[in-house]
Amino acid sequence: MADLLTRAADAVWSYPVVGLCLLSAIFFTVSLRLIQLRAFPHAIALLLGRYDREDETGSISHFQALAAALSGTIGIGNIAGVAIAIAVGGPGAVLWMWVMGLFGMATKFVECTLGTAYREVDPSTGETRGGPMYYILDGLGPRWRPMALFYATTIALAGLGFTCMFQSNQAAEALRTSFAIPTYVTGAALSVLTGAVIVGGIRSIGRWAARIVPTLCLVYVSGSVLICLSQIELMPRVLGIIVQDGLTGDAAAGGALGTMIMWGVRRAIFSNEAGLGSAAIAHAAVKTNEPVREGVVASLGPFIDTVIVSGATAFVIVLAGNYGAFKDEDVARLEAVETAAVWHTVAAEQTPDDTTPLGHRLDGVQVHAIDGTASTDDALVFELPVDALEHDGIRVGAAVGGGALEATLYQGPKALRRVELLPRPATAQLLWGAQTLSFDSELRASAKGERLRLVVSPISDHRRHQAFVATPSLVHERNGITLSTASFDRFIPGFGSIFISVAGFLFALSTMIAWSYYGEVASTWVFGPRAVTPYRVVFVVLAFVGAVRKLAVVISISDILVGLLVIPNVIALLVLSPRVAKWTREYFTRLRAGEFNEPGDG
User: How many other CB atoms are there within 10 angstroms of residue 412's CB atom?
Assistant: First the structure.
């Protein structure tokens, strides 16, 4: 069931959803004439409170609304999600995260303009509520009620798994790994703190977010900037790797260009939620009578979230050379037990430049080489120790001038796993890259008893081509937040293991608080005010459950639900975008005419 749901989530988050988000973001950027760039200075002025009016409708300020929305997007995804994107899609995925972040600013503008335009005021509390279910129904008409109902139900359910349980689980794992804090302690703390904040409604959430989110972002980004400055001579190389891989898909972990773009865009959407419509719920509570004004403020969200905060994580991971999901320190090296005559050992100085990991992956590693006489029968064999399966996989570094190599894991005569080792054109510069054969549960179950061997051999004859293979190593997996933690610790010992673990807890808490409000508003839209208290109670309980249980099935279901949010929301945005374009032209005409200036502003 878990595997089936994972495949279903991957199918939802492939070309239909990712393509819809990317193409619609490009459309909004063009049709609104680069609104994200034109309105950037005005957005800063709004955040500083220049145009605030106390007599306008709403509950929270522009700054609090943006902070509340950012608290829902800046979370574990900015730490763990970036690492996953790089591990699966290669460092070039970061480039496409940035591209989607910049285009996504236009999508967020449209979402939050509509969310503020089509909102309602609760007569009993005076609070304003809005979001996609409101602008789908009120903007498109009663015939669209089923689509609005689908959206509201889906986001309420997704909030319980996608944010509540997942964020709690990741925060608990980070604190358990770094400080040996039991997961039930983290779960209890998150439940109590979440409940204490959300009981006060959006005003309480806005005050919390305005205090916590900017501080966390400032400290986190400052740590990244400090690391980058300490390695300033390598930064051009880091940017070169990200851009070159983003345009070619040649890096070790990346592979196909399409896969890399898919993962970059996908993680950007997960990170800044442009296209999901969720932020429109937070921004609808703002104190303003000008919907376009809140759209302008909201457009800053993807820039802060994906370009700045996620970019900070990406720079440190690439700078540390952690391109894949495995870290190179503290590994168990394998020794060759059998080599064909054509294979020979060379010193590291005789091998191509190790540019892929910024020059540290070959330190102290024995390198095996073949010249231009190798055939498919020439193999390099490594026998795995008895405790090999206690590790998470085998990492093999190689530089191949032409033809191709493959690494195959054998149990007796039976081939269990096989991976191709980075074939490159004969005319290309020889560059090192690494691939990993992972030990999943299926392999562990089938490989009991007999010892395993790793065999490296040419796929085709290596006439006129050289190839180099570094001594393979058994490695322990570091992915997600632990990969980011290890990367930061490489430069500032303790910053990753201490600060990121603590920040991960607070980021998770802020995301949970924001999404509890999203689910609460959606539940209220479906069932009325009586749904608020039950939803809050369920949310707080599941915050504890998420911390102490494995969540593979829950997370896959939640991923599917979150992906499905895109379809009704983006359809509504596209249909209603002409109205947003008209309102935008009118607003900026009035702004230029000085209609919003205070007396004496000139």
Answer: 11
In a 3-state reduction of DSSP, which class is residue 52? coil
The rounded distance, in Å, linking the Cα atoms of 256 and 260 is 6
Angle of helix 235-248 versus helix 92-117 axis, rounded to 10: 80
DSSP 493-545: TTIIIIIIHHHHHHHHHHHHHHHHHHHHHHHHHHH-GGGHHHHHHHHHHHHHH
CA 302 to chain centre: 12
């590693």: which residue's tokens? 365
What is residue 365's predicted lDDT score, i.e. its pLDDT?
66
Between β-strands 119-121 and 128-130, what pairing exists: parallel, antiparallel or unpaired? Answer: antiparallel
* CATH fold label, 332-477: Jelly Rolls (2.60.120)
In this predicted model, what pLDDT tens digit does every residue of 536-569 receive, in sequence order? 898 888 888 888 876 666 667 777 888 888 999 9
* 113-137: average pLDDT: 87
Q: Model-level pTM?
A: 0.76
Q: Are strands 393-400 and 433-438 parallel, antiparallel or unpaired?
A: antiparallel
| Domains in the chain: boundaries | 2-325+482-592, 332-477
- Reported as a single tens digit per residue, the pLDDT across 71-108 is 666 666 677 677 777 766 677 788 888 888 899 999 99
Beta strands 336-339 and 467-470 are: unpaired
Query: What is the total residue count of the chain?
Result: 602
What is the rounded distance in angstroms from the CA atom of residue 587 to the CA atom of residue 602? Answer: 18
For the chain, the distance separating the N- and C-terminal CA atoms, rounded to the nearest angstrom, is 66
Q: What are phi and psi of 587, to 5 degrees?
A: -65, -50
Q: What's 465's DSSP letter?
A: -
Q: Is 430:369 a contact under the CB 8 Å cutoff? A: no
Class of domain 2-325+482-592 (CATH, top level): mainly alpha
Closest to 166 (Cα-Cα) out of 559, 514, 482: 559
313-339 mean pLDDT: 65
